[in-house]
């Protein structure tokens, strides 16, 4: 048992000496002891004060894969003040009894006892400033986020490590301290970047951010103090801070819950980015010095993080609507709703952030969208153009409108993303449209050429009107696609118009065939002697044409004008045909005047009729008056001049046509005929006119089988002479 004075070795001094020898051997053992150090040299003062060893922390480096867990375990466990082994073993009384026999220590009593008894944080801080802390104590400072003080201690520990490195004799403590410094910096940086990541979500001024800024400044000063080539220097914490800001931005955007729809996800990402940058502008950026350019660093970090999110979305298989949505959000919505935001838009635009997606990624998305549309549109077009669609359930007009609306949706949306994308999409759709129009033309040909025996007469007319009404929307759409200016769009445009022209001609033929079949008997009665005295045949022609045009009211304006112009041309051809067939020969000037007057009156009626019908071929109105003048004029020079005007207005007129009119006139003089016909021959040789388009062709469709020559005597007198001879016995 202990004696009353508290000395357990008072009865046996030898046991005391043995006990002391044992403690002296244990004092230097880690992790409990304090290292012995040689007595300080003269003049060293406090600089020779030794730092307590930390082999216990250095052991964490030797356990692969468990360093992080060990550091966290140490952080969670409270670290007591380092106490003397004598005090642990002997207690207070034992320490007092052996105070004169202990070797000198390196700890100050203020650190070991005074702070635990409630001496206050000020005394503790002064004690730490007087004496370097152990590694575990520095780690405790880091965990308590006393980052500035911890960084000062790490810098001092690093300086000791650098001072021991160039010594000639191997110093095991130097390598151990270097590992401790690396581990402490790792823990310090983890806390620094954690504070950086917490500042933005706080949404208010965040005081711990000031500690981060002070640590950055201390480390930059330490980088400047160390010479080049110092291990671990420069640490460039400002660059690492920028990288940490980018990682924090990526984590913030990754926390956005992925909705089911792509549009909702993009909207959520934009809202998170605008909200966070608003917090940076108001609370985070003002805490940094101006030379840090804090808002620009955060803006670039969020921009890169959003670019990574969009890049990941672009790698997924997307449908055509989602492709349009992603491309439109990248090109229009992001600049409008984020870069144009009233609070942060101007600051973002000043950073010159560039596009979110690289150009090759955007072109890849555009190509995928165009390819998908090319595959999808023909399938839908074939579905609309099935054979069953040509019956009463769906008219041709509805087919055209449906397909035009289908393709117009892509033409309207693609140019809003980029003009280049719009041009490529238009060229692709033009090829799709040409393929469909060729199929459409073949179906119209089969349908109109063999409509079926059970089809009523009026049914074919109605279907032809419906089909020809398809052409104007297609023509308009073809021109719109060609206006995008793709260098290879001219040939598809020509093919599309050729197919539509063929469909229009087929439908017009069906519509006018019945009309001209009805008009044929009346045209056969023209240019005869009875025609000079009766206008019934011509009045019937006008009545049939007027009645026919009443059935064309369902036609669109463009096909209506084309059809009326074609009717106008064919009516005048059929009207002039009997004149050139020389059914009537004028035997006197009086008869020529009657024929000319009748031609002039009926030409006026035809001009007024087709003017009311809105014909777009007024050039046809002059053909009958020109032929009439050849019957009225008497002077050969005037006739030559009139023939020249006729050839100028109608380049397809030929010598045989003028000769037929001269036969009707009754011009028998060969010299005068040759002078007049020579004008036509001279013009034919001097003006080698190329083939006229069908819409301008007139005399080329009027065939004259033979040239009628006038006999040198009067035909009625010859007829009477032949009758007299027949009466003779």
Automatic annotation (TrEMBL):
Entries under InterPro entries matching the protein: EXOC3/Sec6, EXOC3/Sec6_C
GO terms, biological process: exocyst localization; exocytosis
GO molecular function: SNARE binding
Transmembrane segments: none
Renumbered residue ranges of the record's region Disordered: 27-62, 85-129
Chain intervals with Basic and acidic residues compositional bias: 39-59
Any one GO cellular component localisation term in the record: exocyst
Family: Belongs to the SEC6 family.
UniProt-recorded name of the protein: Exocyst complex component 3-like protein 2
Organism field: Eudyptes sclateri
